[in-house]
Amino acid sequence: MRTNWGRAASVAVCPRHLFPSVLLSSSALAAVSTRAAAQELGGSAAGLDIRLLLILGTMLGVMAFAIGTALYAMRTTRQSRARAEAAINEAETLRSRKMRLESILAAEPQLLFAWTEAQAPKLLIANLPQSLGVPSAADAFMRFSEWLSEDGVDSLKAAIASLTETGQGFNLMLATLAGKHIEIDGRAAGPCVTLKVRDITGQRLDMARVGDRHRLLDAQIGALKSLLDTLPEPAWLRGPDRNLTWVNQAYADATDANAATRVVQEQIDILPPNDRKAAEKSLARAGEFREQILVSTSRGAQRYSAQVVGRGGVSAGMAREIAAERKPQASADGRLRGFDRMATAFAVFDSEQRLVHFNQAYADLWKLDAAWLADGPFDAEILDKLRFARQLPEKADYRDWKQGWLAVYGRDAQFDDEWHLPDGRALHVVIDSVPGRGVTYLYEDVTERFALESRYNELIQVQRETIDTLREGVAVFSQDGALRLYNKAFASIWRLNPRQLDGEPHIDEVIESCRVLHDDQEEWARTKVAVTAITSERYPYESQFDRDDGCVIAAAALPLPDGGTLLTYVDVSDSVRAERALIEKNEALETADRLKTTFIRHVSYELRTPLTNIVGFTDFLLDVARDPLSDKQAEYLNDIRSSGRTLRTIIDDILDLASIDAGALHLEKDGVDVRKVIASLESGLAGQMQQNGVKLAVEIGEAVDRVTADRQRLSQILYNLLSNAVSFSPNGGTVMLNCDDDDGMIRFRVKDEGPGIPAEMQESIFEPFESRASGAGRRGAGLGLAIVKSLVELHGGHIALRTGTDRGTEFQVWLPRAPQDTSDAAGSGRHSSLAG
């Protein structure tokens, strides 16, 4: 048993792959030893039972298995814990290393992008100053044209393409649109591509600026070379070694080399050896060389005027061909002499494309030197000179256009063209080409004609848009009766199809279509005559008619100066209906007013007769009674007489108002003495003033004498005003009557000390039957002030009101002053009196 436990212990420390076999061996040994023990004890009848031995052996095996498993689990746990601690330590080490790397990368201002073929660019670091103009977002960064200069975009795109395709790294110094310089570095790291953007400072910034300056100078030199390449004169450049470094196409053409690159490669010199040596000496001495040289070309020996200048060991030259002895004459050919006086520019070129004749208008049109033209330049030279001065139409490919233009030489052709120049001028060019004789050009300046046509078309468009906005229907017919112009309102009013009207139908067709809504033979006949009649019989007219659909149309026809006719139609249905309604209402009101006036006049006359009898008999009873009357009888008779007179006054006022409204009241104007009128009023108002306890103060200015008025009506005006003032004056109050001159008018002012007129009643105070309670609490008939206002206006004067609560009321009346009459003067001096 001791040996077996030792083996079991050794199993616990065995490697993992030997553990199962050890367990099986232990179990087997336990079973064998149990069975052996059982056999040893089997022969003894007093020994243990064999089953007990078997159970004991099994238990020993299980215990061995459990102990082995526990030992294995302990070992495995220790190993796992050791590996976990190692992994944690390694992760901390990597994290520290990552933080150090990020700190190192973040220490320098930069943008760092990374991407793979399957993954879009991703921003890793972004601490670059925004003033550089570089976007920090990945998608915005990849849109290079939004923040990089044009040449920088192309360079960066090409470098990135090479990096992603071949893995070739790059380092570029570029300029942003913000005017800043940056450095972009691209590298490939396995399947990943990185792009680093950094600011440039110090010496590297100076280098970047030098590079920009170099590129600018290179571009300027390229532009100058391109310009020189378009000139018809040969031009060239020489380096410090005095060899040719560049020539233009004209140089290559003059030397028959065709290609400029061949001239430079083979050093084909246009200057003869002697002239070249002379040019070198002149450049060394004065920095310039000017001389006429003879050059062998495909056209033979040609004489050129050469000019060479030198700077810093580099020289540039140009040679201008000297024209042949044959030069154009302004009027050498008698057949062309008449063209010299033409305002139209013309030029004649011979079969060799040389200018042989031109007029002054040609030189003025193109602003060319007549002396230079007299040298007989080629047609191509003139075209190039005009293009350089931007006096030719803008063409996308000038070379092809010029070749096509010069291809007319040698052909029998006549055609014309329209040239629109950059300066806004328009030319009509006529070309006449005769084989073997050259080409003749005529240039007509049609700028003004084009401008007039443009303005005319604009006016027509404005006119059309204007009439389309009108609510009136407008139609213009030409002298032959065809419809030339119409607006939408015309088609809408007559419910016509615009397609039919766009076909310029005759007036007969238009009338026939309009008859559906209004079939008036006479109206349409007059319309047709207005459109188609001869000029002497055409006249304007206006009419109005009711259509069958209930619409009322106002029509008008107006002859136009060009022989056409303008027809207008307006739908006035609403206004006509409103007008007719107003007319009917006005007629009804006038009828009612006439009835009212007739009724009032009739009733007033009917009331006046018995009232006169009542007042007369009352006066008779009071005056001639034989028997004495008692006090009560006398009081009653006086009341009857007073009421009768008041009623008669009201009836008279009603009759006066009715007469004024009917226009039947006529004034008998004359020069009226103001003082006499006022004196008669003082006695007439004495009873009323005594009854109310009111005094009257009268003040008449020195300049007041006579007024142009109806004496009776003037007395009525002043009486009504004074009576009204007395009625509203308090007991013991004073009514003021002032009369003075006011700018050629006589002004009467009547003022009381009453309570005044409320604001809400001031606007209607002069209206008939508008009254207010007097100081005694009684209301009048409301006719006195209305009659005053009407009578004043009949006299050509006016009345005004000045009042306020508890401030009294003042009426001012202005009447025309009578002409000065010394024979009937009332005397001078200021008059003042106090009655009551």
UniProtKB/TrEMBL annotation:
Extract the ranges annotated as region (Disordered): 816-836
* Signal peptide span: 1-30
Molecular-function GO terms, alphabetical: phosphorelay sensor kinase activity
Q: What class of enzyme is it?
A: transferase
Does the keyword Coiled coil belong to this entry? yes
Q: Which reaction does it catalyse?
A: ATP + protein L-histidine = ADP + protein N-phospho-L-histidine
Q: List the keywords (alphabetical).
A: Coiled coil, Kinase, Membrane, Phosphoprotein, Signal, Transferase, Transmembrane, Transmembrane helix, Two-component regulatory system
> Histidine kinase domain: which residues?
602-819
**Gene3D superfamilies xrefs:** 1.10.287.130, Histidine kinase-like ATPase, C-terminal domain, PAS domain
Q: Report the EC code(s) recorded for this entry.
A: 2.7.13.3
Domain of life of the source: Bacteria
Keyword Kinase attached: yes
Per the database entry, which stretches of residues form a coiled coil?
74-104
According to the record, the segments passing through the membrane are: 54-74
Q: What is this protein called?
A: histidine kinase
> From which organism does this entry originate?
Methyloligella halotolerans
